[in-house]
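Question thread 4412

I'm putting together a teaching handout and wanted feedback from people who do this every day. The idea is simple: show students a protein as raw sequence, then show them the structure tokens that encode its fold, then repeat with a second protein so they can compare. Below is the first pair exactly as I plan to print it.
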Amino acid sequence: MDRVEIANHIRDRIQNIGIEKLKNSYECSGPINHLIIDDLLPSDLASNLCRKFPPETELNLRDERQEKKFTGVNFSSDQKIVEESIYAFQNEKILELFAQICDIKDLVGDPELYAGGISSMSKTCFLNPHIDNSHDRLKTKFRRLNLLYYVAEEWSSYDGGQLVLYPKGIKQNPIEIDSSFNRLVVMRTDNKSLHGVKQIISAHNRRKCISNYYFSVSSPLNKNYYHSTSFRGFPGERNKDFFLQLDGFIRTTVKSLTGNLIGKYINTGYHRGGRKSSTHK
């Protein structure tokens, strides 16, 4: 099955639910607009994505103060269905549907998968609360939507790994969304969209996520702005929170002063074709 066929399944599921119903769900979801679409793809196709998901030995480990997870953007021939599913979300018909649902007229995809692709999270993995980088790699477009599609079979809330949204800040009650099998979460991303992933508890299962970002030339705030990915500590992590905020401030300042130099000439590697992107034979 190729990306066009998968995109057709996504389109059919969206149309079956109804554009207006999804649009209303997104608009009424609170300050961090989001929506959930369960049973996105036929179950046999979603199960195949789970089976073909690359092992963590073939992915890039990101193990730092603010995160522990495995990521990848390149795939072997046996994993082709995973790659096709990623790019199905960048099909023009799918982009047009989410442009309608989320009311973003100039929405575009990102073929080089800047910070997108796949992520795998096993026991002890986590992702601290953060706001995403405001732009694409070359800082020509604003990041607008985060699409997270979960394909780990038999995943339950007891396994951990919930997506956590903080619409009222770190100290207020968050919204927790389970990473349930065959579930798509679409969320707004801007300078207030604070979100993270709770630590994985399961010793026998891993959280498998297919990620895409959508961008636009228009600003979500109707003005020009920039910030790097900026992390916070989880509630109770006071010292960690201080250092993460300082780190975010420094990186945002440096990148603001250097323009797109870092994205264009200093290759951070976490995109299709980057020096750290894993290539499997």
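The second pair follows. I'd like the answer to focus on this one:
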Amino acid sequence: MSYNIFKSDGTTVSIPDGVVDQNFNNSTANAGKGIGVQIVGLTSTNYVVPTAQNFLQITENFCGSILPPDNKALQGQLWFNKLSPTSGTLYVRVSGALVGGLANWKEVVVGNTTVVPGAYAAANITVDAQGRITAAANGIGGGGSVLSVSVVTANGVSGVVATPTTTPAITLTLGAITPTSVASTGTVTGTNLSGTNTGDQTITLTGAVTGSGTGSFATTYNGVVPLLKGGTGQTTANSSLNALLPSQASNTGKVLSTDGSNTSWVDNEGFVPYYIPVSTTFTVPLYKQALFSIPIINDGTIIVDGYLVGV
């Protein structure tokens, strides 16, 4: 004789009389102590031990390091894989296949991973076979689709875009920059600069400075001002004077003269110094010799000793 019991899906399990059924128990596991469910048949005299062991092992979800075999484990059965006295992993059997081992089970209790909790930007993640995120890091933004690219004209910058919906090629044109204001502590360079300056300004001018405008400002020129810009192009007083005078080359002893418009060097015929050093020979032009009270040698030469008087 036997009696029938039924699985949750209605499958019939027949249990013979007088025996302890081992169809759902691995009796050789744990050195013969077994792991699984033993079902006691009618008229069986040895029913206390298997019944008590069933309750104990079901309560601990068959805790151990031995995976219940495919031909003994039931679909939906729990198994706690004991890793140590203080840790382990709970699995549920999701497949009724007779082969496959651990692949027929799925972890149901998620243990801690090394991933730091938090928000990640464009995250790069690693997912294990149980669906757990085991690694995460910030990535570079990506994904999505760009439907079209265009250039908005602003502050003198404009442009065009070729093939804007596929492989955009952008060409920019730089016109007159027209910002509402410029805040800078460095150097501002450019042409056609206009506006209102506030605070102390340092302006460096290079090249030819041309144009016109209104207003005024004080400047400190840093360098040598060339002659064409109103300077002399020189760095000393004497060299500055020489730069302004007509060329002195081959004009020794001549004097500066003007025709009312321009200056030039002329012969020193009408000039007699009022003092000549001691024992110096001086030649007096012929037409001036009659003006002197000092005797003059026939060739027009006089030797003086101090002041020359008589002009």
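Top answer:
Good format. For the second protein you could add a caption like this: Residues 305-311 have pLDDT under 50 and may be disordered. The longest strand covers residues 275-283.
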